[in-house]
Specification:
Layout (H helix, E strand, L loop, with lengths): L1 H14 L1 E4 L3 E7 L8 E2 L7 E4 L5 E7 L3 E5 L8 H8 L6 E2 L3 E2 L3 H13 L14 E4 L5 E12 L4 H7 L4 H20 L4 H4 L2 H19 L4 E12 L2 H93 L3 H13 L18 H15 L30
Antiparallel strand pairs: 1-4, 2-3, 2-5, 6-10, 7-8, 9-10, 10-11
Helix pairs in contact: 5-7, 9-10
Length: 405
Amino acid sequence: MKKILMVMGLALLAAGCIQVNSNEVGVRVVNLPLPVVGGVESQAKSTGTYLYLPGLFSFYKFPKTQQKLEMIEEERGPTEDENAAFNIGKEMVQAPEQGYELKLEQVADQVKKLDRIKVVPHSRQEGKNNIRLKTADGNDVWVDAVVSYQVIEERAPVLLQKVGYTVDDVTNLVGPMSRSIVRSVLGELRTGEIYDAKAREERIEKARDELNAKLNPFGIKVTSLTVPEFRFSKDYENIIREKALAEQKRQEYERLQLAAEQEKAAKKNKATGDADANIALAQGRKLRAQQEADATLYAKTQEAEAQHLRLLQEAAGMQALAPALAGPGGEAQVAREIARSLQGKKILLVPAQGAINVLDINELLQTYGAVKALQAPAPPAVPEKAPAVNPAPVQQSPAQVAPRK
């Protein structure tokens, strides 16, 4: 009997367990009308196995993976709820001549049906899911938005209490709030700023922060908010396109103008550089010529000064020699110098036809006699300050003149 009870207990225990997978977070609710132990448990259930007794407990699971809500331009048909809302009036009976017959019971029944209808809150009347907003300068723009979010694990009990327990409940909260914030924040931009990626991304980041500030208390975290596309009305887009083409042409003209100015500046710089180089070369040549002229002038000056000094020395020597030549023996010394200059030279006498030979042979022979005087010992030098002594006359032998042939 005990074994049967144990088996039944184990079977009941096994049947009363629930598994939470790694990609899920669970919330357990105690279905007891007690203020202490009843209600939603504050501790979220992570991966594992937990006690679950139907009737005593309720157990809800939320996905921990990222969920994506796309609000993009796509045509769609009306949902079942929207069709139901549209067909409510058709249930009223139409009299042949008096139009719709209104009855209080029918009106009350219609109100009850409307209360039961769920219309997707982020859908638009024209059947598109993207977001329509108005820019700061009054233009309409349609924006595609994609919101990625996930459940905050430790706040899953709050999500169950304040939002609901299904994915649709969470989507019905994230969708309208995302539309409202994106419409408000991106609506701060002007039309031209919509095309500015930097300004647009700054506003998208601001919208993401505001979404987290609104959704985090409910246990939802927005991980990313993107705006993949945006579009204006067709007429306005044509104007924008023409403006963009005009802007491209203007930029192209500015680029060509800038290139021409750069080329002009380059040519001017090259001409200036060539002129500066030629000026520097001419100045270098001028400096070199001036240095060469200065060097030549200096050399000539030194040479002239040396020649002048030499001439002064020769003049001084002649001046010092003049008294000696004027004194006794001066003529003999002069004759000796002349003979020294003629020594070793050939002297030819060539008679000229029809001309008179004025050569003084006697004088020449006397000069030749001076050659012999050179061979005689020179007289002793006479001091300059010594008293002048008249030398004895020198007896010269008469020169023998050779007969003419």
